[in-house]
Sequence to fold (378 residues):
Amino acid sequence: MRHFGLYIHWPFCAAKCPYCDFNSHVRASIDGQRWEKALRAELARVATETPNHILSSIFFGGGTPSLMDPELVANLISDAKRFWRSTNDLEITLEANPTSIEAGKFQAFRDGGVNRVSMGVQALNDQDLKKLGRLHSVDEALKGLEIAQTTFDRVSIDLIYARQDQSEIDWRSELSRALSLNLDHLSLYQLTIEHGTAFGDRYARGLLKGLPSEDRAIELWDITQEMTTAAGYEAYEVSNHAKPGSASRHNLVYWSGGDWAGIGPGAHGRLTIGDRKFATQTELHPETWLDMIETNGSGELERIQLSKLDQAEELLLMGLRLSTGVCLSKLAGLGWAPPETRIDELAELGLIQRNADSIRATTQGRPLLNAVLERLLT
Ligand SMILES: C[S@@+](CC[C@H](N)C(=O)[O-])C[C@H]1O[C@@H](n2cnc3c(N)ncnc32)[C@H](O)[C@@H]1O
Ligand code: SF4
Fold:
Protein backbone atom coordinates (compact mmCIF):
# COMPACT_ATOMS: atom_id res chain seq x y z
CA MET A 1 0.00 0.00 0.00
CA ARG A 2 1.45 3.35 -1.00
CA HIS A 3 0.60 6.94 -0.37
CA PHE A 4 0.64 8.89 -3.53
CA GLY A 5 -0.24 12.13 -5.27
CA LEU A 6 -2.32 12.88 -8.31
CA TYR A 7 -1.21 15.72 -10.60
CA ILE A 8 -3.75 17.03 -13.12
CA HIS A 9 -2.44 19.44 -15.75
CA TRP A 10 -4.67 22.13 -17.30
CA PRO A 11 -2.61 23.50 -20.19
CA PHE A 12 -4.43 26.75 -20.95
CA CYS A 13 -3.81 30.37 -19.93
CA ALA A 14 -5.44 33.70 -20.77
CA ALA A 15 -2.04 34.94 -22.07
CA LYS A 16 1.47 33.56 -22.26
CA CYS A 17 3.90 35.19 -19.80
CA PRO A 18 7.25 36.00 -21.42
CA TYR A 19 9.35 34.14 -18.80
CA CYS A 20 7.30 30.93 -18.64
CA ASP A 21 8.27 27.62 -20.20
CA PHE A 22 5.50 25.55 -18.61
CA ASN A 23 3.29 23.61 -21.00
CA SER A 24 0.73 26.39 -21.29
CA HIS A 25 -1.15 27.61 -24.35
CA VAL A 26 -3.62 30.31 -25.31
CA ARG A 27 -6.73 29.15 -27.21
CA ALA A 28 -9.71 31.15 -28.46
CA SER A 29 -12.07 28.39 -27.33
CA ILE A 30 -11.91 25.01 -25.65
CA ASP A 31 -14.32 22.13 -26.10
CA GLY A 32 -15.17 21.53 -22.45
CA GLN A 33 -16.96 18.25 -23.05
CA ARG A 34 -14.07 16.69 -24.94
CA TRP A 35 -11.63 17.75 -22.25
CA GLU A 36 -13.80 16.41 -19.48
CA LYS A 37 -14.22 13.05 -21.18
CA ALA A 38 -10.49 12.73 -21.89
CA LEU A 39 -9.28 13.74 -18.41
CA ARG A 40 -11.77 11.42 -16.71
CA ALA A 41 -10.79 8.55 -19.03
CA GLU A 42 -7.11 9.09 -18.16
CA LEU A 43 -7.91 9.07 -14.46
CA ALA A 44 -9.78 5.77 -14.84
CA ARG A 45 -6.92 4.26 -16.86
CA VAL A 46 -4.28 5.08 -14.23
CA ALA A 47 -6.58 3.94 -11.40
CA THR A 48 -6.77 0.40 -12.79
CA GLU A 49 -2.96 0.21 -12.55
CA THR A 50 -2.67 1.50 -8.98
CA PRO A 51 -5.47 -0.16 -6.99
CA ASN A 52 -3.48 -0.33 -3.73
CA HIS A 53 -2.20 3.22 -3.72
CA ILE A 54 -3.61 5.58 -1.10
CA LEU A 55 -4.27 9.10 -2.26
CA SER A 56 -2.77 11.80 -0.03
CA SER A 57 -2.84 14.73 -2.44
CA ILE A 58 -4.45 16.02 -5.61
CA PHE A 59 -2.84 18.98 -7.37
CA PHE A 60 -4.45 20.91 -10.25
CA GLY A 61 -1.50 22.61 -11.95
CA GLY A 62 -0.98 24.44 -15.18
CA GLY A 63 -1.31 26.52 -17.14
CA THR A 64 -4.08 28.18 -15.23
CA PRO A 65 -6.42 25.66 -13.57
CA SER A 66 -8.53 28.46 -12.08
CA LEU A 67 -9.82 28.87 -15.66
CA MET A 68 -11.33 25.36 -15.44
CA ASP A 69 -15.03 24.84 -15.06
CA PRO A 70 -15.55 24.18 -11.31
CA GLU A 71 -17.89 21.33 -12.23
CA LEU A 72 -15.07 19.58 -14.10
CA VAL A 73 -12.78 20.04 -11.08
CA ALA A 74 -15.49 18.63 -8.79
CA ASN A 75 -16.08 15.64 -11.09
CA LEU A 76 -12.37 14.81 -11.25
CA ILE A 77 -12.13 15.00 -7.46
CA SER A 78 -15.13 12.75 -6.94
CA ASP A 79 -13.79 10.25 -9.52
CA ALA A 80 -10.44 10.19 -7.74
CA LYS A 81 -12.12 9.61 -4.39
CA ARG A 82 -14.10 6.73 -5.89
CA PHE A 83 -11.07 5.14 -7.55
CA TRP A 84 -8.66 5.27 -4.61
CA ARG A 85 -8.85 5.14 -0.87
CA SER A 86 -7.58 8.43 0.48
CA THR A 87 -5.96 9.70 3.67
CA ASN A 88 -8.25 11.54 6.11
CA ASP A 89 -6.44 14.77 5.46
CA LEU A 90 -6.40 14.61 1.65
CA GLU A 91 -4.81 17.85 0.38
CA ILE A 92 -6.48 19.20 -2.78
CA THR A 93 -4.65 22.19 -4.28
CA LEU A 94 -5.61 24.35 -7.25
CA GLU A 95 -3.23 26.82 -8.86
CA ALA A 96 -4.95 30.12 -9.45
CA ASN A 97 -4.08 33.19 -11.41
CA PRO A 98 -5.28 36.44 -9.80
CA THR A 99 -6.99 37.64 -12.99
CA SER A 100 -9.24 34.62 -13.33
CA ILE A 101 -10.56 34.66 -9.84
CA GLU A 102 -13.91 35.79 -8.65
CA ALA A 103 -15.65 34.98 -5.42
CA GLY A 104 -18.33 32.79 -6.97
CA LYS A 105 -15.84 30.55 -8.70
CA PHE A 106 -13.67 30.13 -5.62
CA GLN A 107 -16.66 29.10 -3.59
CA ALA A 108 -17.59 26.60 -6.28
CA PHE A 109 -14.06 25.17 -6.27
CA ARG A 110 -14.31 24.79 -2.53
CA ASP A 111 -17.73 23.13 -2.79
CA GLY A 112 -16.17 20.70 -5.26
CA GLY A 113 -13.53 19.68 -2.73
CA VAL A 114 -10.55 22.00 -3.26
CA ASN A 115 -9.05 22.87 0.14
CA ARG A 116 -5.85 24.71 -0.77
CA VAL A 117 -5.09 27.44 -3.30
CA SER A 118 -1.73 28.46 -4.72
CA MET A 119 -1.88 31.91 -6.33
CA GLY A 120 0.62 33.22 -8.85
CA VAL A 121 1.04 36.78 -7.60
CA GLN A 122 4.66 37.03 -8.94
CA ALA A 123 5.33 40.65 -7.90
CA LEU A 124 3.91 43.25 -5.55
CA ASN A 125 4.73 46.22 -7.72
CA ASP A 126 2.74 47.23 -10.79
CA GLN A 127 5.69 48.20 -12.95
CA ASP A 128 7.28 44.77 -12.60
CA LEU A 129 3.96 42.97 -13.09
CA LYS A 130 3.80 44.72 -16.49
CA LYS A 131 7.36 43.71 -17.33
CA LEU A 132 6.49 40.12 -16.43
CA GLY A 133 3.57 40.32 -18.85
CA ARG A 134 1.00 39.75 -16.13
CA LEU A 135 -2.62 40.67 -16.77
CA HIS A 136 -3.32 41.75 -13.17
CA SER A 137 -2.33 44.68 -10.98
CA VAL A 138 -1.12 44.46 -7.37
CA ASP A 139 -4.56 45.63 -6.21
CA GLU A 140 -6.36 42.92 -8.15
CA ALA A 141 -3.99 40.27 -6.84
CA LEU A 142 -4.53 41.41 -3.26
CA LYS A 143 -8.31 41.45 -3.70
CA GLY A 144 -8.19 37.94 -5.14
CA LEU A 145 -6.03 36.89 -2.25
CA GLU A 146 -8.46 38.28 0.26
CA ILE A 147 -11.27 36.24 -1.29
CA ALA A 148 -9.02 33.17 -1.30
CA GLN A 149 -8.20 33.64 2.37
CA THR A 150 -11.83 33.89 3.37
CA THR A 151 -12.72 30.83 1.28
CA PHE A 152 -9.82 28.45 2.01
CA ASP A 153 -7.91 27.59 5.19
CA ARG A 154 -4.70 27.09 3.27
CA VAL A 155 -3.46 29.71 0.81
CA SER A 156 -0.03 30.02 -0.76
CA ILE A 157 1.39 32.60 -3.15
CA ASP A 158 4.18 32.45 -5.72
CA LEU A 159 6.54 35.40 -6.05
CA ILE A 160 9.39 35.77 -8.52
CA TYR A 161 12.44 37.73 -7.38
CA ALA A 162 15.90 38.57 -8.78
CA ARG A 163 14.01 40.49 -11.46
CA GLN A 164 15.39 43.15 -13.79
CA ASP A 165 16.69 46.17 -11.84
CA GLN A 166 15.37 44.84 -8.54
CA SER A 167 17.41 46.29 -5.68
CA GLU A 168 17.82 44.67 -2.28
CA ILE A 169 15.69 47.41 -0.75
CA ASP A 170 12.92 46.78 -3.33
CA TRP A 171 12.89 43.07 -2.57
CA ARG A 172 12.98 43.62 1.20
CA SER A 173 9.95 45.86 1.00
CA GLU A 174 7.99 43.52 -1.29
CA LEU A 175 8.80 40.50 0.78
CA SER A 176 7.87 42.21 4.00
CA ARG A 177 4.50 43.10 2.44
CA ALA A 178 4.05 39.44 1.46
CA LEU A 179 4.97 38.31 4.96
CA SER A 180 2.37 40.65 6.44
CA LEU A 181 -0.39 38.82 4.54
CA ASN A 182 -0.43 36.01 7.08
CA LEU A 183 -0.22 33.17 4.57
CA ASP A 184 0.72 29.65 5.61
CA HIS A 185 2.97 29.03 2.61
CA LEU A 186 5.15 31.01 0.19
CA SER A 187 6.88 29.83 -2.99
CA LEU A 188 9.69 32.29 -3.73
CA TYR A 189 11.44 31.66 -7.04
CA GLN A 190 14.45 33.41 -8.51
CA LEU A 191 13.69 34.49 -12.07
CA THR A 192 15.17 31.91 -14.45
CA ILE A 193 15.70 32.82 -18.07
CA GLU A 194 14.39 29.81 -19.97
CA HIS A 195 15.45 28.92 -23.46
CA GLY A 196 12.58 29.19 -25.97
CA THR A 197 10.61 31.82 -24.04
CA ALA A 198 10.20 35.49 -25.03
CA PHE A 199 12.62 36.44 -22.21
CA GLY A 200 15.05 33.77 -23.45
CA ASP A 201 15.01 35.29 -26.94
CA ARG A 202 15.43 38.84 -25.63
CA TYR A 203 18.28 37.71 -23.39
CA ALA A 204 20.05 35.98 -26.31
CA ARG A 205 19.86 39.23 -28.28
CA GLY A 206 21.30 41.19 -25.34
CA LEU A 207 18.04 43.07 -24.83
CA LEU A 208 17.12 41.86 -21.34
CA LYS A 209 18.99 44.35 -19.20
CA GLY A 210 19.40 44.76 -15.45
CA LEU A 211 19.40 41.10 -14.40
CA PRO A 212 21.31 40.51 -11.16
CA SER A 213 24.87 39.16 -11.17
CA GLU A 214 25.43 35.81 -9.47
CA ASP A 215 26.68 37.56 -6.32
CA ARG A 216 23.66 39.86 -6.21
CA ALA A 217 21.35 36.88 -6.71
CA ILE A 218 22.96 35.17 -3.71
CA GLU A 219 22.48 38.35 -1.65
CA LEU A 220 18.79 38.38 -2.61
CA TRP A 221 18.61 34.69 -1.67
CA ASP A 222 20.19 35.45 1.74
CA ILE A 223 17.66 38.24 2.36
CA THR A 224 14.87 35.81 1.49
CA GLN A 225 16.11 33.20 3.97
CA GLU A 226 16.71 35.75 6.73
CA MET A 227 13.31 37.44 6.43
CA THR A 228 11.19 34.31 6.03
CA THR A 229 12.92 32.58 8.95
CA ALA A 230 12.45 35.64 11.16
CA ALA A 231 8.74 35.60 10.26
CA GLY A 232 8.37 31.96 11.40
CA TYR A 233 8.49 30.17 8.04
CA GLU A 234 10.61 27.08 7.55
CA ALA A 235 12.47 26.80 4.23
CA TYR A 236 11.45 23.17 3.85
CA GLU A 237 12.64 23.21 0.24
CA VAL A 238 14.94 25.47 -1.81
CA SER A 239 12.12 27.80 -2.92
CA ASN A 240 9.30 26.80 -0.59
CA HIS A 241 8.63 28.27 2.83
CA ALA A 242 5.89 27.13 5.20
CA LYS A 243 4.58 27.82 8.66
CA PRO A 244 4.93 24.73 10.90
CA GLY A 245 2.72 21.90 9.59
CA SER A 246 1.82 23.74 6.37
CA ALA A 247 4.33 22.30 3.91
CA SER A 248 2.65 21.25 0.68
CA ARG A 249 2.06 17.52 0.91
CA HIS A 250 2.10 17.33 -2.84
CA ASN A 251 5.57 18.88 -3.04
CA LEU A 252 6.78 16.44 -0.40
CA VAL A 253 5.57 13.47 -2.47
CA TYR A 254 7.77 14.68 -5.35
CA TRP A 255 10.84 15.44 -3.33
CA SER A 256 10.84 12.41 -1.07
CA GLY A 257 10.77 9.81 -3.83
CA GLY A 258 7.04 9.07 -3.64
CA ASP A 259 4.65 7.97 -6.37
CA TRP A 260 2.40 10.29 -8.29
CA ALA A 261 0.20 9.90 -11.34
CA GLY A 262 0.50 12.64 -13.96
CA ILE A 263 -2.72 13.28 -15.89
CA GLY A 264 -3.15 15.78 -18.73
CA PRO A 265 -0.89 17.04 -21.55
CA GLY A 266 2.81 16.94 -20.74
CA ALA A 267 2.33 15.60 -17.21
CA HIS A 268 5.12 13.47 -15.75
CA GLY A 269 4.49 10.69 -13.24
CA ARG A 270 6.33 8.13 -11.12
CA LEU A 271 4.46 4.89 -10.55
CA THR A 272 5.49 1.80 -8.63
CA ILE A 273 3.72 -1.21 -10.06
CA GLY A 274 4.59 -4.49 -8.37
CA ASP A 275 8.30 -4.18 -7.63
CA ARG A 276 9.08 -1.98 -10.59
CA LYS A 277 9.13 1.81 -10.71
CA PHE A 278 8.27 3.67 -13.89
CA ALA A 279 8.69 7.22 -15.14
CA THR A 280 5.61 8.13 -17.17
CA GLN A 281 5.20 11.02 -19.58
CA THR A 282 2.17 12.14 -21.57
CA GLU A 283 1.96 13.86 -24.95
CA LEU A 284 2.79 17.55 -24.63
CA HIS A 285 0.62 19.14 -27.29
CA PRO A 286 -2.96 19.61 -25.99
CA GLU A 287 -4.89 18.72 -29.15
CA THR A 288 -2.61 15.77 -30.02
CA TRP A 289 -3.07 14.50 -26.46
CA LEU A 290 -6.87 14.72 -26.90
CA ASP A 291 -6.69 12.85 -30.22
CA MET A 292 -4.52 10.13 -28.71
CA ILE A 293 -7.04 9.44 -25.97
CA GLU A 294 -9.98 9.49 -28.37
CA THR A 295 -8.26 7.10 -30.79
CA ASN A 296 -5.98 4.92 -28.60
CA GLY A 297 -7.53 5.27 -25.15
CA SER A 298 -4.33 6.69 -23.63
CA GLY A 299 -2.41 9.98 -23.66
CA GLU A 300 0.77 8.34 -22.42
CA LEU A 301 3.99 8.22 -24.42
CA GLU A 302 6.77 5.71 -23.81
CA ARG A 303 6.99 4.48 -20.22
CA ILE A 304 10.49 4.04 -18.85
CA GLN A 305 11.40 1.60 -16.10
CA LEU A 306 13.81 3.20 -13.61
CA SER A 307 16.79 1.14 -12.47
CA LYS A 308 17.71 1.14 -8.76
CA LEU A 309 20.59 3.50 -9.61
CA ASP A 310 18.23 5.88 -11.46
CA GLN A 311 15.99 5.87 -8.39
CA ALA A 312 18.89 6.53 -6.01
CA GLU A 313 20.14 9.44 -8.11
CA GLU A 314 16.67 10.90 -8.29
CA LEU A 315 16.24 10.53 -4.53
CA LEU A 316 19.51 12.39 -3.96
CA LEU A 317 18.62 15.07 -6.48
CA MET A 318 15.24 15.70 -4.89
CA GLY A 319 16.19 14.98 -1.27
CA LEU A 320 18.94 17.57 -1.17
CA ARG A 321 16.34 20.21 -2.02
CA LEU A 322 14.57 19.45 1.28
CA SER A 323 15.54 20.83 4.68
CA THR A 324 15.35 17.29 6.07
CA GLY A 325 17.87 16.11 3.47
CA VAL A 326 18.18 12.62 2.10
CA CYS A 327 18.22 9.40 4.10
CA LEU A 328 21.43 7.43 3.56
CA SER A 329 19.91 4.05 4.43
CA LYS A 330 17.17 4.67 1.85
CA LEU A 331 19.91 5.25 -0.74
CA ALA A 332 21.75 2.14 0.47
CA GLY A 333 18.51 0.17 0.06
CA LEU A 334 18.70 1.09 -3.62
CA GLY A 335 22.28 -0.17 -3.77
CA TRP A 336 24.06 3.18 -3.95
CA ALA A 337 25.93 5.43 -1.53
CA PRO A 338 27.60 8.79 -2.13
CA PRO A 339 31.41 8.47 -1.74
CA GLU A 340 32.47 9.18 1.88
CA THR A 341 35.42 11.33 0.75
CA ARG A 342 33.08 13.60 -1.22
CA ILE A 343 30.69 13.90 1.72
CA ASP A 344 33.61 14.91 3.98
CA GLU A 345 34.96 17.36 1.44
CA LEU A 346 31.58 19.10 0.97
CA ALA A 347 30.96 19.08 4.73
CA GLU A 348 34.32 20.77 5.30
CA LEU A 349 33.35 23.45 2.80
CA GLY A 350 30.17 24.00 4.82
CA LEU A 351 27.92 23.07 1.89
CA ILE A 352 26.38 19.92 3.36
CA GLN A 353 25.82 18.59 6.84
CA ARG A 354 25.99 14.95 7.80
CA ASN A 355 23.70 13.64 10.51
CA ALA A 356 23.36 10.06 11.83
CA ASP A 357 21.60 8.64 8.76
CA SER A 358 21.18 11.59 6.44
CA ILE A 359 22.92 14.34 4.53
CA ARG A 360 21.40 17.74 3.96
CA ALA A 361 22.41 20.87 2.10
CA THR A 362 23.21 23.77 4.43
CA THR A 363 21.83 27.28 3.87
CA GLN A 364 25.13 28.09 2.09
CA GLY A 365 24.94 24.88 0.06
CA ARG A 366 21.39 25.28 -1.17
CA PRO A 367 22.00 28.00 -3.76
CA LEU A 368 24.94 25.90 -5.03
CA LEU A 369 23.02 22.67 -5.24
CA ASN A 370 23.99 21.82 -8.82
CA ALA A 371 27.68 21.91 -7.95
CA VAL A 372 27.07 19.86 -4.79
CA LEU A 373 25.17 17.21 -6.74
CA GLU A 374 27.81 17.02 -9.42
CA ARG A 375 30.45 16.37 -6.76
CA LEU A 376 28.41 13.62 -5.12
CA LEU A 377 27.42 11.91 -8.35
CA THR A 378 30.76 11.81 -10.19
C1 LIG B 1 2.41 26.97 -13.51
S1 LIG B 1 2.89 28.47 -12.89
C2 LIG B 1 1.58 29.08 -11.84
C3 LIG B 1 0.23 29.31 -11.97
C4 LIG B 1 -0.47 30.40 -12.72
N1 LIG B 1 -0.52 30.06 -14.08
C5 LIG B 1 0.16 31.77 -12.58
O1 LIG B 1 1.03 32.09 -13.37
O2 LIG B 1 -0.28 32.52 -11.73
C6 LIG B 1 3.96 28.08 -11.56
C7 LIG B 1 4.88 29.16 -11.03
O3 LIG B 1 6.18 29.01 -11.54
C8 LIG B 1 6.87 30.22 -11.43
N2 LIG B 1 7.65 30.42 -12.66
C9 LIG B 1 7.27 30.14 -13.91
N3 LIG B 1 8.27 30.45 -14.77
C10 LIG B 1 9.32 30.93 -14.03
C11 LIG B 1 10.62 31.43 -14.33
N4 LIG B 1 11.07 31.48 -15.58
N5 LIG B 1 11.41 31.83 -13.30
C12 LIG B 1 10.96 31.78 -12.03
N6 LIG B 1 9.73 31.33 -11.69
C13 LIG B 1 8.92 30.91 -12.67
C14 LIG B 1 5.84 31.32 -11.23
O4 LIG B 1 5.98 31.87 -9.95
C15 LIG B 1 4.54 30.57 -11.37
O5 LIG B 1 3.56 31.07 -10.51
S1 SF4 C 1 3.22 31.84 -15.53
FE1 SF4 C 1 1.20 30.94 -15.27
S2 SF4 C 1 -0.20 32.34 -16.43
FE2 SF4 C 1 1.86 32.77 -17.11
S3 SF4 C 1 2.07 31.49 -18.95
FE3 SF4 C 1 2.99 30.37 -17.20
S4 SF4 C 1 1.36 29.06 -16.50
FE4 SF4 C 1 0.40 30.66 -17.79
Notes: The first strand starts at residue 2 and ends at 10. Residues 13, 16-17, 20, 22, 24, 62-64, 97, 120 surround iron/sulfur cluster (ligand 2) (CB under 6 Å). The chain has two domains: 2-253, 308-378. The chain has 14 helices and 15 strands.
